[in-house]
Amino acid sequence: MYSTNYHRASSVDEAVALIAKGSDAKFLAGGHTLLPVMKQRLAAPGDLVDIAKIPALIGIEASGDTLTIKAATTYYDIMHNADVKRMIPAIAHLTSVLGDPAVRYRGTIGGSVATNDPAADYPAAILALNATVKTNKREIPADQFFKGLFMTALEDNEMITAISFPVPEKAGYAKMRNPASRFALTGVFVAKLKSGEIRAAATGASQDGVMRVPVIEDALKANWSASALDGIKVSDDGLIEDIHGTSDYRANLIKVMAQRAVQAAG
Amino acid sequence: MGIEGIGARVARKEDRRFITGRGRYVDDIKLQGMTYAHFVRSPHAHAKITGIELDAAKAMPGVIDVLTGQQIVDDKVGNLICGWAIHSKDGSAMKMGAWPAMAPETVRFVGQAVAVVIAESKNLARDAAEAVVVHYEELPAVANIKAAIADGAAQLHPEAPGNIVYDWEIGDQKATDEAFSKAANVVTIELTNNRLVPNAMEPRAAVAEYNPAEEHFTLYTTSQNPHVARLVLSAFYNIAPEHKLRVVAPDVGGGFGSKIFIYPEEMVALWASKKTGRPVKWTGDRNEAFVTDAHGRDHLSKAEMAFDADNKMLGLRVKTYANFGAYMSLFSSSVPTYLYATLLSGQYNIPAIYTEVVGVYTNTTPVDAYRGAGRPEACYLLERLVETAARQLKVDPAELRRKNFITQFPHQTPVIMAYDTGDFNASLDAALKAIDYAGFPARKAKAKSEGKLRGIGLSCYIEACGIAPSKAVGSLGAGVGLWESAEVRVNPVGTIEILTGSHSHGQGHETTFAQLVADRLGIPINQVSIVHGDTDKVQFGMGTYGSRSAAVGMSAIFKAMEKVEAKAKKIAAHQLEASENDIVIENGEFKVTGTDKAIALPMVALAAYTAHNLPDGMEPGLKESAFYDPTNFTFPAGSYICEVEVDPGTGKTSFVNFVAVDDFGRLINPMIVEGQVHGGLVQGIGQAILENAIYDDSGQLVTASFMDYAMPRADDVPSFQISHTTTLCPGNPLGVKGCGEAGAIGASAAVINAITDAIGNNRLEMPATPDRVWHAMQLQQAAE
């Protein structure tokens, strides 16, 4: 690791000011993506602004049909939260199979979403549930937030403060883990929203990162059941092909994981 | 024997320091004035070095020196050696290119050291290493066996035309051809044995110190065999004569073979410590471990077996290509020859065997012994071939094996090995019973009704351990003898120190070796200390690999104990005014048999050291040493049966059950044996379904971190059902055979046999990842 200046911010405003002032400064929350690449000297931020202890960024709020998870809330706190378990159990489940206990104690939802790792779990939930990403500047609908591998709509000095999830009628998540990294080789989140909209999002599979899967959405719209997907074929166009899985294998996984997600959703 | 003697499940003495963070590893050592080394490594698989710019790096803060491959050549530090001479069919010696510790002219694998920065801190060394500019002229690379032996392939070493190190054979070609000409059926299989990265928990490290006043070096290093390291560093690398070089291997966090070898980094650390006049520390990180620790396996094989009409084996023909990487590592040449082809008879009576092995250079990390070393490759090949035969001949795989088992011992195989003892039916019977083999069809049908594919796979392995006797290995080309030494020191107050040439890097010697002493003298193991891993303390030793520490190392202790006991009995008899023939040792006392006269061990020891009243002519003291050279290899054997369930949607394999029945001869500490078996099985399962070192065509290691190299985790493996059958090894006084590698040798074939049984497609390579299994299922469905 190259030397860096560490700052701990106590408010969102202070954090944003520190980032603006710093040299090639980076927000640090759980650090699970940033610190490993810094240790390998592949990233060298001059300043690190730790936002993990900012009180306004921690906590979960339930109001009516909306569940709001603040950005620096850890996976551990999310998976054990009673409101999450009651209102969107699929998110509690997704979180319980994300990483391992050590990761879950420190990793944060805001960090995961801001990084937009192509194999991260939360982006699938956000896209499928049509959640809203709240920042210090604005509110960004899910469909406009994810812009490709490690790319988001976030601008310079913009920080995610919370994710707001509409409570769905039903939702489910299923994933196949990469045998080595244990990230999602392919994960699919399916949701039947209270508006009646059906959404399905896959992570880990596409060269462009998290994506919606229209062929699955269409089939589930006609018939919300796992067997409705038996006959569909997911195209392997644009899917990742690597040592852990070919693109046709991933296309198969999208279908199989979607079926299991529907089963889990009930 | 007492409660802490042979056969007792004694908790490991060494674990208290390990689990409380008080182990002392090489990286824990800090010397006055110590500096830190960081290597500049090749990013290319094959390139000419056309220039190195050092000035900027030398001017960086805290930099003491930057040293290059040309300087190490100029200083006449020897090239790395391969210590086992193998001859090709035509009688020619193996063809090897030079391997300097740092490359002066040409780099031949990604990660090869080119230069080293010595600086005041680890970070400063790393900073400066980034400022070293190496100019390369890239050359075409060959990254795998097929590419290396292709017409027109890029050549690694002018000494080895066609990238061939040797073209070796074993067995009787004519007799084997005759057997095939008489065959009613011939079964063929082609397969690869996937390349593995050892990944010991502790990466390699070295601390070197030079004392100019005494012209004396000390090297602290992560070694499985510090005396062999000293011998090689002295005799071949011109570092220092042996009496001017102390090698210490303190606590070492796992080796699996990868820490047998002397690597460039410790040579450079020693050389640089003299050049800079400061102690030098190098601690590898995980990335360096991936690209510089000797890899394991990497074979491409075709095997054919001839059967008569009654399904009796008539002959076996094998051709194997073995990938050695870019240079011949210390014992690499022996692994695919004498440690592999000599085990191809397995547990079977095969009248004729002929095997050819072609050793191949590629632009990859050197390959050498890794847990099992040749024997896993042999077992995997043979047990997949036998399982394939059972399917093709439509006979029960257990019965086909049983029909061909060797049942008379000793048994001379057609490939050198003379099996001393064993009972292969006993272990197979126990394994079949433990897994409820008879009930499998019903379980398979039930799984099918639930949408799952269930399979069962057998693997009946045999291996050769001890890697001795010296005369035998010498006749096969080994550059060293493979005995072991021991010294037993009884202190004046009766406590005991055992000095051994074996080295413990996870095996639990401090407990098991003490149990042997406790067993013989009837004293608690806390009265016994085991001293190892320091050439200044232990006279000589060959170290730990090849599951040899019990069979060879403990046998040496046994012999030294006999000498100590004989002298102690003489002293006791003299003190008790009895005949030494009437003295028996019980519960730490020397007793006159049939009387109540006794003298405790501390009093005998004290008498030996005060020397006030010893038998006439007896030397004072109570200390004896012994060298032990076995009469044969030992032959652990067993039967593994694996039952799996494959998810047809994803191709993912889950383990329903895994039964391991091993015959290790006498067990010293069953708990430690079980731990060894667990670890070995996990490595075997890891090879079967997870681990794979993959190079792209340009020679870059794609799986160079745990993000892409799948190490087995606890939830990847089942809870094992382990049991033992016993035939005592007649070749050593303890009747032990060795248990360190068996799991890694036998497991992978059982797993793949089970998965191929489940999916009904025998064409499946390791690792059987979900992706590969799913594709094999698709092909099978398309074929049906």
From TrEMBL, chain A:
InterPro entries listed in its UniProt record: CO_DH_flav_C, CO_DH_flav_C_dom_sf, Diverse_Substr_Oxidored, FAD-bd_PCMH, FAD-bd_PCMH-like_sf, FAD-bd_PCMH_sub1, FAD-bd_PCMH_sub2, Mopterin_DH_FAD-bd
Residue ranges occupied by any FAD-binding PCMH-type domain in the UniProt entry: 1-170
Pfam family, one: FAD_binding_5
Gene3D superfamilies cross-referenced by the UniProt entry: 3.30.465.10, CO dehydrogenase flavoprotein, C-terminal domain, Uridine Diphospho-n-acetylenolpyruvylglucosamine Reductase, domain 2
A GO molecular function held by the record: FAD binding
UniProtKB keywords: FAD, Flavoprotein, Oxidoreductase
Protein name: Xanthine dehydrogenase family protein subunit M
Species in which this protein is naturally found: Rhodopseudomonas palustris
Taxonomic lineage from the root: Bacteria, Pseudomonadati, Pseudomonadota, Alphaproteobacteria, Hyphomicrobiales
